[in-house]
Amino acid sequence: MTVVTPGSGATLKASKAESQLLELLTYIKLMELQPSKNPDNRTNISISYNLGTQLANMTFSIDATPEINSLGQMVSVAKPYLQNTGFTAGSGGTFVSSTPEAYLLELLSFIQIKESDSTKNTNNDNNVAFTYDVDRSLFSGTVTLPIETSLQDDGTVKVMAKEYLRD
Fold first, then answer.
1. CA distance 89 to 96
2. pTM metric for this prediction
3. Can you give 61-119 as a three-state secondary structure string?
4. What pLDDT tens digit does each residue of the chain (167 aa) get?
5. Which residues span the domain enclosing 25?
6. Considering the domain boundaries, does residue 4 fall inside one?
7. Residue at 128 is within a domain
8. Number of domains the chain is built from
9. Which pLDDT does position 38 carry in this prediction?
């Protein structure tokens, strides 16, 4: 399990990186479905669940402009396309980005770094893959997360990300 700290008052509540990624992608998808939050009717997130394989398959594309920071390093800055989502990273959390789009890039990069460390990813899983096309200013990729599903006593179905990374 890779523990992350949700900020105090944060929109996202999950305390594991894999769970927070599933929560965030679901959050963004739900915002995309609301015309008032997504006036350009963009579909940048796709999510499907396969109960037979117990996998959540997701794709994403986020516009991100390249910039050079004060240290001379190239960084990519997410361009928000959703409006008035009420999203907040909270205070004191692992991640600090103030929009869901930027938070997604931060979280994906965090997970990708963990995946490349064999002590954190003992099975060498490659569940997060992305590229940054500077010419198109587009950050895009795929996420394939193992999931666990269960039926709750009230009849609802609960889908949770299964942890595969270590601290």
1. 6
2. 0.95
3. EEEEEEEECCCCCEEEEECCCCCCCCCCCCECCCCCCCCHHHHHHHHHHHHHHHHCCCC
4. 799 999 999 999 999 999 999 999 999 999 999 999 999 999 999 999 999 999 999 999 999 999 999 999 999 999 999 999 999 999 999 999 999 999 999 999 999 999 999 999 999 999 999 999 999 999 999 999 999 999 999 999 999 999 999 99
5. 17-161
6. no
7. yes
8. 1
9. 98
What CA–CA distance (Å, rounded) separates 24 from 30? 10
Check: CB of residue 21 under 8 Å from CB of residue 112: no
User: CA 5 to CA 95: how far, in whole Å?
Assistant: 8
How far is Cα 114 from Cα 166, in angstroms, rounded to an integer? Answer: 8
72 CB burial (10 A radius; 0-12, 13-18, 19+): exposed
Angstrom distance (rounded) from CA 36 to CA 121: 40
- Residue at 75 is within a domain: yes
Is 138 domain-assigned?
A: yes
